[in-house]
Design goal:
Strand order of the largest sheet: 1-2-3
Number of strands: 5
Shape: globular
Largest sheet: 3 strands, parallel
Structural class: mainly alpha
Length: 340
């Protein structure tokens, strides 16, 4: 599904864990689409602090403080709180109640088979010492999505199993109450693909792996990050033919450079030989500097008045609670839990 497929009838739910400032992976994966889509349909953006606590229970302040940091990133890239409802997950208790009902519709073995959960458990080295909240967060995510009757959820390919499990829960619930109370959602994967590689070229760009370039990066940080980027280890001399596939610099040029024809010419030249790594890195640095400078400036302006940002979050959270409360009421009524 492409952004052009979205209609005014669609409802989007997406968000970010509040464990650190957002980076270029977030931007290419979701943020720039959110800016585009907020003029086309209703959009809910959650600051997922409750989900962040599933593997950060010993670091409450990190999660709490980054609520404001992620909100600043949202505003800096152009998300308008008058068009998109930005809210704090933990302050919408209706989500927790919905998740508690959904847990009765999914088994432990099914949760453990979820490919996304399996990969993240392995990445964190949990083995069998898995926090129950972490294992069950697909049910919590299903609550987030269904509470707002979301029809579209922007995700990377590695998160598609989470949407599939949400839809399983939706179908099971609707079948159990014999009426279509909940709505299934579709995943929208960015055209660039699921993962923007980290600047080290070894994995996806991830805060936990420390291989990111944040949206608030300074000009010097951008310059140093591009210098460090992995290219083709066999491209030892400028005259040597180079490999584009797996070359991090070209992955970033594909993701961010506005001149597609120029990038194609650079690729052809690199493959033939005669084009040095310093040249393609220079093109990338200029592109990223131009992209991030205005974002960094807007972020600094919003950061000067944190009280205004928190007031915006309070208003957005109140709107989100109103919507979630309606869905929760419908769910409880369908289950016969409307006693009086």
């Amino acid at each position: 599904m492409k952004p052009s497929d979205i209609t005014s009838q669609d409802i989007i739910l997406t968000g970010d864990r509040t464990t650190g400032s957002l980076h270029l992976g977030h931007y290419v994966g979701s943020l720039r689409n959110r800016v585009l889509l907020q003029d086309r349909c209703q959009q809910f953006l959650l600051l997922a602090d409750a989900q962040a606590l599933t593997d950060n229970m010993g670091n409450y302040l990190k999660v709490r403080d980054n609520v404001l940091q992620v909100a600043l990133d949202y505003l800096a890239v152009g998300i308008d709180p008058a068009k998109s409802t930005i809210f704090i997950q933990s302050l919408v208790p209706e989500l927790t109640e919905l998740a508690s009902y959904y847990l009765n519709l999914v088994t432990v073995s099914r949760l453990e088979r979820n490919p996304t959960i399996k990969d993240e458990i392995k990445q964190r080295g949990y083995e069998r010492d898995i926090p129950a909240g972490f294992l069950t967060y697909p049910a919590a995510q299903a609550a987030d999505i269904t509470a707002f009757k979301a029809t579209i959820v922007p995700v990377g390919e590695d998160q598609i199993p989470m949407i599939e499990q949400t839809n399983e829960i939706v179908r099971r619930f609707n079948a159990s109450v014999e009426k279509p109370v909940l709505v299934e959602a579709k995943a929208m994967v960015p055209e660039v693909g699921a993962r923007l590689p980290g600047i080290d070229g070894k994995a996806k760009m991830s805060k936990s792996l420390g291989n990111t370039l944040t949206l608030s990066a300074s000009a010097d940080e951008i310059r140093q990050a591009v210098k460090m980027m992995y290219t083709d280890p066999n491209h030892l001399r400028v005259s040597d033919p180079g490999q584009v596939e797996g070359n991090v610099v070209f992955s970033y040029l594909d993701a961010f450079h506005p001149n597609i024809e120029l990038v194609k010419r650079l690729k052809d030249h690199y493959r033939l030989g005669g084009l040095g790594d310093s040249v393609i890195k220079q093109h990338l640095e200029e592109c990223l500097q131009e992209l991030l400078a205005p974002i960094r400036q807007r972020r600094e302006e919003y950061a000067r008045d944190p009280a205004a940002v928190l007031a915006m979050l309070k208003e957005g959270t109140a709107r989100a609670r109103q919507v979630a409360a309606v869905t929760l009421s419908e769910v409880k009524a369908a289950m016969g839990l409307n006693y009086y």
